[in-house]
Design a protein that fits this description.
Structural class: alpha+beta
Radius of gyration: 19 Å
Distance between the termini: 12 Å
Order of helices and strands: EEEEEEEEEHEHHHHHHHHH
Strand order of the largest sheet: 2-9-4-7-10
Largest sheet: 5 strands, antiparallel
Number of helices: 10
Strand content: 15-25%
Number of strands: 10
Length: 292
């Protein structure tokens, strides 16, 4: 399911809060914000699609606005997190490169920053300081929050940039800037039967469909068709978990144009049929309250 995040402070589009996950596995979700989670006590797991990480106090998790995820507490030692949610445009306004740590390839990306690493030691105090500033709201807290958030993003950027040659990194930045309008457009319109050429023409991007296709693959790790298909699969999973719609309604409401295609790609992605997925992940009602 996709959660729409609202911010308590319009001038500072950042939320920070303590949260204890349930011990039962809740439905995976995505949201409109970027997110960082610091486990401050207890233990459990953090699920990202088919990936699962063991979580303990001091561990940090990086979450973008496209990957399905949910945290889960250990039954005997429930975990508590400080979660930060923030608007991507808030840091992009300073430097678009700062979005790159969150524009990862889900299948290849390690969301987990272990507690015993130097990077976790640098990030944890900054996460705590943002939480404290937003809680206390002392004079100038907005500037303090933004400063700490930019530092967090720079540290993540340096972690991801160091293994890459500078020329390759510059190309990734350029590719990401080219596809960002397309990603935003697709999040809203993925249910429509839009070919890449039609999207290029509609958004007036000023580049060819073939060039954008190459940039899309470089920046996301997926082809345009693969990316759209994953958005549709995510929506189908959300509907299967939270509604009683029949399979054909789920198929077409998710953007698939053919039931045969829907069943085939769903089976390949989830390793089970849509009916089996619903039976395994069914929830009693649509969750109305946002959770991290």
């Amino acid at each position: 399911m996709r959660l729409q995040i609202t911010y308590e402070h319009p001038a500072v589009p950042v939320n920070a809060f303590l949260w204890t996950p349930r011990t039962s596995l809740e439905p995976l979700h995505v949201h409109t914000s970027l997110e960082l989670g610091l486990c401050v006590s207890g233990g459990g797991w953090f699920h990202f699609g088919a990936k699962r990480y063991r979580a303990a106090a001091g561990d940090i998790f990086v979450v973008n606005n496209r990957e399905l995820h949910i945290a889960q507490s250990d039954e005997t030692d429930p975990s508590t997190y400080i979660f930060l949610n923030f608007d991507p445009n808030y840091i992009a306004a300073e430097d678009v490169q700062l979005l790159l740590p969150y524009a990862y390839y889900p299948d290849r990306f390690d969301n987990h920053i272990p507690r015993d690493t130097p990077l976790a030691g640098q990030l944890a105090p900054l996460i705590r300081s943002i939480w404290e500033e937003l809680k206390e709201r002392r004079q100038g807290y907005g500037s303090m929050v933004k400063s700490a958030l930019l530092q967090l993003s720079v540290l993540l950027l340096r972690r991801d940039a160091e293994p890459l040659a500078s020329a390759h990194w510059r190309q990734l930045v350029q590719d990401f800037e080219k596809i960002q309008p397309v990603l935003t457009f697709l999040e809203e319109r993925f249910r429509e039967p839009l070919e890449l050429k039609a999207v290029v023409e509609r958004l007036r991007l000023g580049i060819s469909a073939s060039r954008l296709s190459h940039a899309f693959k470089e920046a996301t790790g997926k082809t345009y068709k693969e990316y759209v298909r994953q958005l549709r699969l995510n929506e189908a999973k959300r509907l299967l978990m939270t509604t009683e719609q029949d399979m054909l309604d789920v198929c077409f409401a998710s953007g698939f144009q053919s039931a045969a295609t829907f069943y085939r790609v769903f089976q390949a992605d989830a390793g089970m049929s849509p009916a089996q997925y619903r039976e395994r992940h069914r929830v009693p009602a649509i969750i109305e309250n946002p959770v991290p």
